[in-house]
# Entry
Amino acid sequence: MYVRTTLPNGLRLVTAPISHVRSVSIAFFFGVGSRYESDEIAGVSHFIEHMIFKGSKRYPSAQLISETIEGVGGLLNASTDREMTVFTARIASKYFEQAMDLLADMVRNPLFAADEIARERRVISEEIGMYMDDPGSWVSVLANELFWKNQPLGREIAGTRETVQGMSATAIRQYHARHYLPNNLVISIAGDVTAEQVEDVATRLLGDWQPQDVPSWIPCPPESGIPQVHLESRETEQTNFDLLLLGLPYNDPDRYALSLLNTILGDSMSSRLFLEVRERQGLAYDVGSAPIQYHDTGAFSVTAGVAPEQTAAALTAILREVARMRDEPVGAEELTRAKEYTRGRITLSQENTGAVSGWYGAQELELGEIRELDEELEHYDAVTREDIQRVARRMFDESWLRLALIGPHDDAEAFERLLRLS
Amino acid sequence: MGTPETTNAASGELAPNYFVHTFPNGLRMVGQRMPSLASVTFGVQLDAGIRDEPEDRLGLTYLLSEMMFQGTQHRSVRQLTEEFEALGARKGGETAIEFARYSAQIVGNRLDTALDLFADVLLYPALPNEELTQMRAVQLQEIRRRDDEPMRRIFDLARERYYIGSPLGRRALGTQQTVEAITRDDLHAFWQTHYHPKGTVLSIAGDFDWDAAVARVGELFGGWSGEAPPSATALPHPVSSVFVEPQEGNQQHIAMAFPFPAYGDPDYYAASVVTEIFGGGMTSRLFREVREKRGLVYSVAAMFAPNGASGAGFLYAGTTPEKAPETVRVMLDELKLLRDQGVTEDELERARVQLKSELVMRGESSAARMGALLRSWWFEGRLTTIQELKAAVDNVSREQIMRLLEHFPLTEPLVQVAIGPRPADELFPEA
# Structure
C-alpha cells in the first residue's frame, strides 16, 4: 500500500508505510543520467553523484555528511544510471527527519568545491580503471556502444578518463542547476513512517524549491541492419561476450510478457539457457539474459563467460535458443513455473524496505504511475504463451544482432558469420 | 544419541520466540519466529567444509554443493529444478572453509514443501555421472573466471599467504588439476563420511509454527543417522611476508592480512568495533585518509573474518600502479597509528551506534536472522538475541580495544600481497 502526493512545486512523494519494521528506507530519484549528456561532458551525471557526497551548504564537508548519517547508524548510497540518479538512505525511523534534512541539503545545495572536484577526478578515473580491468563488466560497455552507436545511451555511464579529466566546475554547476529540480524528483519512502510525516518534512525542507522546465532526454533510436561484432583482443582465461538484440521500452504494454520471456529464456536455474548452455553442455559458468528498458527504446542482453575454444559453440547454442523462443510457443507448464517464480520473487522482495522504496520510486519516475503488487501479479498471470511468442517476434530479428567479445581471439569475422537466427 | 528435548521461552532458558530442539539422532534445530514477516528462511549447516577435503581433491565441496541439486534417488535433475522453481524459492548451497550450508527462502506457506525437497536433496542425492561431467566443466570455467578477476583473486592470495601451511587458506574452487581428478566415488565418499545429523544444525527464521516445523523435520530427517569425524584443526602460524603476482592492467590491487580474534574470543566485539572504525563506512579512517583526502582509490576497506579456529583481519585497496606505493604507505601509517594510539571516544561511540543499528535493520530480514542463529549456535553453542548483541557492542570500551591491540598488534605479523604491474620492492620497501 502506498500514498502518493505531489507538492505545489511538482515534487512527487510516494510513501509505503510498513508497520512491523523500525527502519525507514528513503530514495531520491532524479530523472537525470548519462543519456541527457552531450559528448563533451560525458560522465557529468555520475560526477555530480560523487560530488554530492563532498559537501553542501549546511553540511559543508564529506566528513560531516558521512558522520551525520553513520553517526546515527544509517547507510547512505547512490547510483547513476542512464535515465536516473538515485540517492538512498536506510536508517532507524527515529532519525527519519535527520536523514531527510541531510539528503535534501546534499542534493539541493552541493558546494562543488574546486579542490574536491580535482580529487574526485582521480577517484573516478580509478573507478573506470576498475571496470576496464573486469572483462565481464567491460564487455557490456562495448556491446552497448555497438547497439547505440555514437549515441548517449551507448556510452559508459561514468564517461571516459578524458572527459572526466576535462570536466570543469562550470559544466558541473550548470548541469546540476538544469536537472536537479523539484519537478524532476520523486522521493520514495518505505518503512516505519506515515504519509503525513513525509509530506510535512518534504514541504518544510523542499517546498520553497522553485520548479523550472525539465530538459528532456536525447532520443536514441538504435539502428538495425546487418549483424555486427566488436572484438577486443585480450589475453584472458575466459572469453566474455554480451549479445544484444532489440528490447522494449519501459512502458511497453508487453513488458510483463517480456519479463516472463526473460525468466524462461535466461533468468533462472531452470531457464533454457542455464539448462542448455551451462548444465547440459557445460560450456559456461555463468550465462544469463536480461532486458534493458528505457523511456523510448530497449535492448535484450545475453551474456556468458566461456572457455575461449568453446566460444563459437556457446554462441551457437544461445542463438538457437533465442530463435526457438521466436519460432515456437513456450510450454504451458514452463509458463506456469515462470509465473510462480515471479510471484515468489516479487513477494519476497516486498519484505525489504529498500526494495519497496525502489520499486515504487522507479515506477513513478519511469511510468508516471504506480501499480500495486496485486495488480502487477494479475498482469503477469494474464500473460499467455501466444503473448510471449509475439514479443519474441517483435525483438528477435537477425538485423538487431550486436555482439561484443573480450578474449584471446583475433578474427571478428568468424563470429560475424555465426550471427544468424534461424 | 541423546534424548529429545525442546527449549523455548516457557522453559525459561530462551527469549520469547527463540527455540532450540535436539532430535534423537543428534540433529539440532534452532529457530526464531518473526510473525510479522511473510517469508521463512531455513538453512542446514554441516561440519563438512573446505578444510575437510582430501589434499588431492581440492574444490570437492564446491562441486558437491552443486551436485547435491542435480537430482535425487526420487527425482530427476529436471524434476528437482522445476519443483524448486515452482516454489519461487531462493535457494543454494554454500561452501565455507569450516562448514557447508544449504539454504532456502520461501513464502511461509511453502515451508513444508521446501523442507521435503531439502530432505530429499541432503539424504538421497543421486550424484549422477552425466551431470558430474557438466558440473565439473562448469567449475573449471569458474576457475578461469576467477583468474580473470583480480579483485577476487587478491583475497584468495591474501588468505593463502596468511594461512600458509594450513587447510584454512585453501581456495574454494580448487585448481584445474584437482577438480579434473574428482570422481563420483570421491563425492559419494565425502558425502557418506561427512553428511550426518549429529553436529548438523537446521536453523529457521520467519513466519512459521515451531511445533509443526519440529514435527515435520522429525518425520523427514528422523531416519538419518551417524556422526561426522572431527575436523583436523591444524592452526595456522602466520608470518610476515610480501608477495606480488605480476599482471598488466589499469589497477594495482593491494591486500593485507593480520591475526585477529576468532568467534567466541572475549575480544570478538572489540574487534568488530575496531574494524568498523578503521575501514567500515564512509566515516572510517581508511576511507577518509586514502580516498577522501588523497583521492588514491575508488575502493578501500577493512574486513573482519573471524572463523571458528583462527580469525584474521583483511585490508583491501585498488589503485593505479603510479599511486600504489603511496597507497601502501598510507595504509601502513594508519595501521601503526591505530596500533599505538587506539581509537577516540567519538569514533567508538559512532561505531557502536552503527553496529547496533545494523543489527536492528538486519533483524528485520528472515535470511539475516537465519544466518545469525546458525552462526551463534555453531561457533558459541548458544542463541544470541539481538538485545544481547547490542549490549555486547555497548560494553566495548577504549581500554578493551587497547588490550585487543596488544594481543593483536596489527602489523606483527603482517602479510602484504598485490596483483598488478608494480614489483614487490617498489610497493613494499619497508618489508
Observations:
- Chain A is about 45% helix and 20% strand.
- The CA atoms of residues 42 and 245 of chain A lie 25 Å apart.
- The domain at 228-416 of chain A is CATH 3.30.830.10 (Cytochrome Bc1 Complex; Chain A, domain 1).
